[in-house]
Amino acid sequence: MSGVGAAPAVDCSLHLSRYYGPQITQQTDSSAPAAAADGSRIFRGWIVVFGVFITLLVTAGLGFYNASVILQAGRTELDTSVTAVSGATAVFFGVSGITSFLLAPQMDRVDIRWFYVTGGLVGAAALLGLRLVDSVTELYVFFGVFGIGFALGGLVPGTTVVARWFAVRRSVALSIATTGLSMGGILVTPLAARLIERETLAGAGPLMALVWLLGVIPIALLLIRSTPGELGLQPDGVPVAAGAAVQKPSDLPGATFEQAKASRFFRFLAVTYALVFLAQVGALAQLFNLGAERIDRAAGAAALSTLAFASVGGRLLGGVVVTKIPARTMTLVLIGVQAFALALIALADTRSALIAASAIFGLSVGNLLMLQPLLLAETFGVREYSRIYSFSQLFGTIGVAGGPFALGFLRDLFSYRTALLIGSGANLVAIATLLAAGSTLLARQTWERQTAG
């Protein structure tokens, strides 16, 4: 890894000027290592990426993927109906999205590690409180509080800090960091599910709380730093020239939240991802049941595992590929891949067909999640990135929260085949909305002209 942070000075200068403004891209010795400012041969940004990876692994493994496990256990232990608890995960994702948006402006003013500390404490307190959940109302309260902790230790602070540390290698850094989400589903959620099955929610809650606490707060405090300027670096490890002022994120060139929100690109991208997540998360939530219903439970489990591993591999590969082609082009292609995969799943009647379709689906799942923050950072910069991304995520939350219900409702009304084909169609609409959004270059030129004027 000795050269992982290095890049030719001219190349870095061009990219940093594009994203962060020419005033910080002082000419540096092209032979110097990228992290020379702190005396290390490894750029400190990769340590930040590893820290974000670990926190996402824990919060996604115990939160995003584990929410349905907790909900199912709660329904069984409280001896209530599916209808009575069906809105609990929507509360979880809804509260998470609103919390991220409301607190995002502070991420440009406060050391981002304090968000992780707060998220670690709130999330751990919520999990510890599972031993007190004795009613449906209390289950909803749990998911509401847990959603706050998940927001403060999840994607918005994680992608914000990675976007600040990288410009030239941003796609690779984001792909590695966000792979923590998938690895959490692969490594952590199955263990949590077995623990809940053996100990019940009351017994499993304290141990999950401890894992959450240790997997968020110490990792953030030790490994994550808000900006490269804190260590005398520019993005991608280019040393700050002697005597040059280190700028804060709020001082760097970039669109304001109001400029971004008013743009056609931002609005249509938000709609695009609401549709993408509605189909994606809805299909993820129904895939096991579809496999069990059509073939057997083993087929459903194999389909989910295949999807998860394909998501990890696809995201890491996609982080490199997107350095060669425009991010918007790659997003359009992958939305098409997702539409194709859902159509294949809808028609799959054998184990091999279902697993093959799930593998194709997995290639799109991880990459589409990584491409959303990348598109926003490339188009609007990092000046108010956390607020811009969190607002876009708020729209995406509509799809995340509504997807499982929508596809489940369509399955009950018609069949899984019809539900998945409609999900595939939602992706085709998403392609149309992203095409209508226009180019990232045009959107960037628009706010640059407004700022210059």
Characterize the structure shown.
The chain is about 75% helix and about 0% strand. The chain is mainly α. It folds into 2 domains: about 230 residues, MFS general substrate transporter like domains (Growth Hormone, Chain: A), CATH 1.20.1250; about 200 residues, Growth Hormone, Chain: A (Up-down Bundle). Helix 8 crosses helix 15 and helix 11 packs antiparallel against helix 16. The longest helix is centred in the middle third of the chain and has 54 residues. The chain is globular and about 60 Å long. It starts with 8 loop residues before the first helix and ends with a helix.
What are the salient characteristics of this protein?
453 residues; mainly alpha; Growth Hormone, Chain: A; 2 domains; 17 helices; 75% helix; 0% strand; globular; disordered N terminus
In short:
The chain has 453 residues and is mainly alpha-helical.
- Compute the average pLDDT: 82
Q: Helical region count?
A: 17
**Envelope shape:** globular
**Based on helices, strands and strand pairing, what is the structural class?**
mainly alpha
CATH third-level topology of the largest domain: Growth Hormone, Chain: A
Total beta-strand segments = 0
Strand % is under 5%
Radius of gyration of CA atoms, rounded to a whole number: 22 Å
Q: Domains counted in the coordinates: how many? A: 2
Task: Just name the CATH architecture of the largest domain.
Answer: Up-down Bundle
One letter per element, helices H and strands E, the order comes to HHHHHHHHHHHHHHHHH
Q: In CATH's first tier, which class of the largest domain applies?
A: Mainly Alpha
The biggest sheet, with number of strands, parallel, antiparallel or mixed sense and barrel status, is: none
- Quaternary organisation: single chain
**CATH homolog superfamily of the largest domain:** MFS general substrate transporter like domains
State the distance separating the first and last CA atoms: 44 Å
Unreliable segments (pLDDT under 50, ≥5 consecutive)?
Answer: 1-39
Assign a percent range to the helix content: over 70%
